[in-house]
Amino acid sequence: MNNRNVILSADSTCDLGEELKARYNVHYYPFHIILEGKQYQDNVDIQVDQIYQAYYDRKALPQTAAINVGEYVDYFRPFVEAGFDVIHFCLGGALSSAQKNCQLAAQEPELAGHVFPIDSCSLSTGIALQVLEAGERIRAGMPAGEIAKEMQAIVPHCHASFILDTLEFMKAGGRCSSLVAFGANLLSLKPCIEVDNADGSMHVGKKYRGTLKKVLPQYVKDKLAQYPSIKRDHLFITYSTIDPSYVELVRQTVEETMEFKEIHTTNASCTIACHCGPNTLGILFETE
Asked: Is the confidence at residue 184, as pLDDT, over 90?
């Protein structure tokens, strides 16, 4: 049987950026954002700035909702009916029910054998790194089933972490206590949140102390020194909202520390940004 052409797809939490999305012809399906009783589609009809402004103006907190089974089925069906197989990258299963929902959708008789969900065990551009790997394999003519198998070995080599400037949004969303948030603010602590690429869960790593101008370069140097064999193809600098001078500071630190073929700067999706708050920034890369 001839190989079917492959569609490359991801949840909107991939944060790939428009240039790379177009370069690899990546299709997105948006998560849901619920704000003040109204439902939106992530980065379609609501943007990160609007979410933060609603909190600052009215203390309105957003909620996020995963893509459900029916939505995935309706999304994949036209691709499969048109003769395509689909590789779809999901927000890590430890972080969202979307990955399980995607798996259930892929088992529907009309889609079975043609939709291949990938548990990224990651978020944001930790997923994007995997998408790029799959994109290169699609260009090389590899069938979807083989790509899905190879991704199992790629996932544990994609590293995601980020620095939080404030715990206010995590406190407001019930993800840390008021006491912890107050203490972090009082001591000017900037915790590094790390994603476990074995299962996609998150934990607090090193706690930095000082201003972002001081903390961000040290964080970059620490992360790039942590692994002996970093792939030099792509590094992502991904952030919620932050002054451009900090993005440039991080880029400069990366360039002075290690050479990469491409350094990409991308904005976090609403789903990611509403949990971490403004001035959050991370570097994300892959190891051999």
From this structure: no
Are 48 and 77 spatial neighbours (Cβ–Cβ below 8 Å)? no
In the predicted model, what is the mean pLDDT of residues 261-284?
Answer: 93
Query: What angle (nearest 5°) sits at the alpha carbon of residue 81, between those of residues 144 and 117?
Result: 35
User: What CATH number matches the domain at 158-287, 3.30.540.10, 3.30.1180.10, 2.60.120.260, 3.40.50.2300?
Assistant: 3.30.1180.10
Could you tell me the pLDDT band of residue 263, with boundaries at 50, 70 and 90? Answer: very high
CA dist 27 and 200 (Å) reads 22
Q: Is 131 helix (H, G, I), strand (E, B) or coil?
A: helix
pLDDT at 277: 87
Q: How far apart are CA 74 and CA 208, in angstroms?
A: 45
Give the C-alpha separation, 275 to 63, whole Å: 9
| Lowest model confidence (mean pLDDT) among 189-193, 200-204, 249-253 | 200-204
What is the pLDDT at residue 29? 96
3-state secondary structure string, 215-233? HHHHHHHHHHHHCCCEEEE
Instruction: Phi first, then psi: give them for residue 125, nearest 5 degrees.
Output: -80, 0
Rounded-to-integer distance, Cα 56 and Cα 277, Å: 11
